[in-house]
Amino acid sequence: MRLFHKLAATQILSLLHSSAAVLLSQRDLTRVVNTNYDFVIVGGGTAGNVVANRLTENQNFNVLVLEAGPRQVKLHGEAWDIPLIIWHNCSDAGILALQVPFLTATTTTQTPWDWNYTSVPQPGLNGASVGLPRGYVLGGTSSTNGMIYTRGSKADFDRYANFTGDEGWSWDNMLPYFKKSEKFTPPSDRHNTTRQFDPSVHGFDGLNSVSLPGAPTVIDDRFEVAIDQLGGEFTYNLDVNSGSMLGFGWVQATIDGPSASRSSSSSGYLAREFLLRPNLHVLVNAQVSRVISEGNRDGVPEFKTVEFRLNGGDSLFNASASKEIILSAGTINTPQVLMNSGIGSPSHLHSHGIQSVVDLPDVGENLFDHPLITLSWRVNSSGTYDDYRRNSALQDEALQTWKTTRQGVYATGASQHIGFVRVPSNSSVFANAPDPASGPGSPHFEILVSVSTLIFVAVFCLIKTYAEFPYRTTPPEGNYLSILALLSSPGDNARGSVKLNSSDPFSIPLIDTGLLADNATDLALMREAVKSVLRFASAPAWEEYIISPQDSTQPGLNATDAELDAFIRANTRSGYHIVGTSSMTRKGAGAGVVDPDLKLKRAAGLRVVDASVLPFVPAGHTQAPTYALAERAADLIKATHSP
Ligand SMILES: Cc1cc2nc3c(=O)[nH]c(=O)nc-3n(C[C@H](O)[C@H](O)[C@H](O)COP(=O)(O)OP(=O)(O)OC[C@H]3O[C@@H](n4cnc5c(N)ncnc54)[C@H](O)[C@@H]3O)c2cc1C
Ligand SMILES: *[C@@H]1O[C@H](CO)[C@@H](O)[C@H](O)[C@H]1NC(C)=O
Ligand SMILES: *[C@@H]1O[C@H](CO)[C@@H](O)[C@H](O)[C@H]1NC(C)=O
Ligand SMILES: *[C@@H]1O[C@H](CO)[C@@H](O)[C@H](O)[C@H]1NC(C)=O
Ligand SMILES: *[C@@H]1O[C@H](CO)[C@@H](O)[C@H](O)[C@H]1NC(C)=O
Ligand SMILES: *[C@@H]1O[C@H](CO)[C@@H](O)[C@H](O)[C@H]1NC(C)=O
Ligand SMILES: *[C@@H]1O[C@H](CO)[C@@H](O)[C@H](O)[C@H]1NC(C)=O
Ligand SMILES: *[C@@H]1O[C@H](CO)[C@@H](O)[C@H](O)[C@H]1NC(C)=O
Ligand SMILES: *[C@@H]1O[C@H](CO)[C@@H](O)[C@H](O)[C@H]1NC(C)=O
Ligand SMILES: *[C@@H]1O[C@H](CO)[C@@H](O)[C@H](O)[C@H]1NC(C)=O
Ligand SMILES: *[C@@H]1O[C@H](CO)[C@@H](O)[C@H](O)[C@H]1NC(C)=O
């Protein structure tokens, strides 16, 4: 027992139950290196943990997850009593930020759980560089994101099916996977949710908890009245997750209602009972540099070795996978690992002295994102969330309430009201340009309402240092309403990329978001989105509530197109919904990176399972599609390897 002297009693218990899953010393690292795993998963993020969970349902599969970030630590400073390989003493400082829904704006950037990426200067945004947070923790971006749960439209998935020639990606075939991953739970405040969602389109037995808002806000009634007053584009939609997204309704979020806690892929798919599986090893602080091919199978390079470093050290180690290596490192890091491995555009790789192994020029290309802009107003109410972002006594009180009752403001997320709008097909926007939406039922833009200054997203993009952390950027006084607009359907030319900047596999890549890069429709549709936000804010329901714009330069309904354009170019930032850098295309297609079964083209032994495989950005936020595609991927992998 000498090895385990540092462990608490609970950890020793789990050790005795399943010593195979516990590795805590140099000797155990040696074991990781010497085990021939069936599958090695690169990245314990949103998608990676889904695959790890589902594959280890089969006791004959030995699975290793390599995650670059630290593990998430449990609440109140207790360490998780689970056997995470290589014990990491994470400070508990700020961990509440990952668990308490209200604290979502404090998870990024320049925190221990973020990759701290910034884009290259964006021509569409007057040359600005934008912040691009990504989760760096077991759970990946699902542990740090805004928790909004939207699936996209039926047409988004039918377009994936059509584009890839695989009916499996159609809405009708993916809806069972959305349901499989989902555990719809009652909201924290147990309010009556009748007529707030459609139970028939949800799953109740999955591993990712979803719920409606857990605490009422001061604008709930006004929101509903505004919708009634305005009509037209502002119709009520019982459930924007039914495949028919158009209209306005309640936000569903990846919050477990009863515990009032963030649901992430690590809290759900790597819950204690799954981590105790003896055929699952999870190694944190393990950053993968590349995958290595030592020979060919069926005339193409075969990959069985994953190279990684531990705790940022200089030594490199190998892990081996006899069946498959699954890349789940996300839209930025998956293409980076591929390129580090000699998989990509040969000329780009040669320019960094990397030998080409698989010629796949689309690796890192086709990056799509959602442009996002925030408008805000000063309001006549003391009941907004602003005080909770600047008054530490109120914060202490809210935290105490949350800890003792799992109720109150801290039980709820950043936004409670959401809507999706379509510009009419006869709009002049489409007079000389194709409609970029995936279909006639898909929105062009999204509107998201928040009962405070929207530091969430808006500020992430602007802050440069930890000292400018969101809670310190709420104005010292005043109460606010923020309304965000996201361009759900960027034009086909609004594509960015991820490229290597160096031959050092651990260096930061060059990231181009392609935001507002398609001049045919991006700006015109953003203009429509801003006008729609302004129309919404002009509903009689907001009289005596909205006082004035927070910033006097914010355009009003009388603004000219030129004024709107200037405002949009100056203030648009990333919606953080990047996809497409390992795009799937038809089997046998020259373009693209993976086949519809997510196997890397022109190679053997490699699959990509994360948001990077989506060839177009869906009209909704990207985590729900990522969970669902990972569920389907796990079935595809099992089908390949089951006798
Ligand atoms: C701030 C923010 C807010 C967001 N809000 C929402 C929202 O409200 N709703 C929504 O639906 N979507 C939201 N998103 C987007 C959504 O969370 C992501 O699209 C989704 O989680 C991506 O999942 P993934 O599996 O592709 O990648 P990730 O979840 O990022 O997983 C990748 C994992 O791989 C690890 N990794 C990377 N490189 C390596 C390496 N070399 N070796 C080992 N491990 C590695 C990472 O640390 C990470 O754990 C948000 C994103 C951000 C950044
Ligand atoms: C973790 O580190 C902190 C200091 O960073 C130390 O006080 C604490 O004792 C450590 N805990 C364990 C379990 O090693
Ligand atoms: C991001 O920045 C924070 C704070 O500076 C740091 O703790 C963290 O390790 C950084 N992330 C990475 C991947 O380096
Ligand atoms: C399917 O894709 C083809 C091209 O690949 C396109 O011509 C056709 O319009 C698409 N159909 C639908 C319903 O999207
Ligand atoms: C919830 O509200 C609906 C009507 O909106 C009502 O029919 C139902 O009885 C209520 N449920 C509970 C448990 O109160
Ligand atoms: C990893 O595997 C490659 C290919 O077999 C080999 O060249 C390299 O030396 C190995 N590295 C270690 C640390 O074993
Ligand atoms: C678009 O069509 C609607 C009716 O479907 C009509 O009321 C409107 O005037 C038309 N707009 C334009 C710009 O033609
Ligand atoms: C890319 O590399 C150059 C040269 O080493 C360096 O100056 C620059 O800061 C790097 N860019 C990023 C985004 O790291
Ligand atoms: C798109 O518009 C921007 C801003 O006006 C301009 O700088 C850019 O050159 C245009 N791009 C193309 C392809 O025309
Ligand atoms: C603020 O609201 C109160 C009612 O709650 C109203 O009497 C007052 O006129 C409002 N002030 C403004 C500036 O609208
Ligand atoms: C728009 O209206 C506001 C007041 O509602 C006014 O201050 C502003 O000058 C107007 N702008 C234009 C371009 O007419």
Automatic annotation (TrEMBL):
**InterPro entries from the entry?**
FAD/NAD-bd_sf (IPR036188), GMC_OxRdtase (IPR012132), GMC_OxRdtase_N (IPR000172), GMC_OxRtase_C (IPR007867)
Q: Does Flavoprotein count among this protein's keywords?
A: yes
- Spell out the subcellular localization from the entry: Secreted
Q: Name one GO cellular component term.
A: extracellular region
Catalytic residue positions: 577 (proton donor), 621 (proton acceptor)
Sequence ranges assigned to domain Glucose-methanol-choline oxidoreductase N-terminal in this UniProt record: 330-344
Q: Which reaction(s) does the protein catalyse, per the Swiss-Prot or TrEMBL entry? A: pyranose + acceptor = pyranos-2,3-diulose + reduced acceptor; pyranose + acceptor = pyranos-3-ulose + reduced acceptor; pyranose + acceptor = pyranos-2-ulose + reduced acceptor; a pyranoside + acceptor = a pyranosid-3-ulose + reduced acceptor
Positions with a binding annotation for FAD: 137, 141, 288
Required co-factors: FAD
Q: What Gene3D superfamilies does the record tag this protein with? A: FAD/NAD(P)-binding domain, Glucose Oxidase, domain 3
Family (UniProt): Belongs to the GMC oxidoreductase family.
- Subunit structure as annotated in this protein's UniProt entry: Monomer.
- Annotated protein name in UniProt: pyranose dehydrogenase (acceptor)
Query: Which source organism does the UniProt entry give?
Result: Agrocybe chaxingu
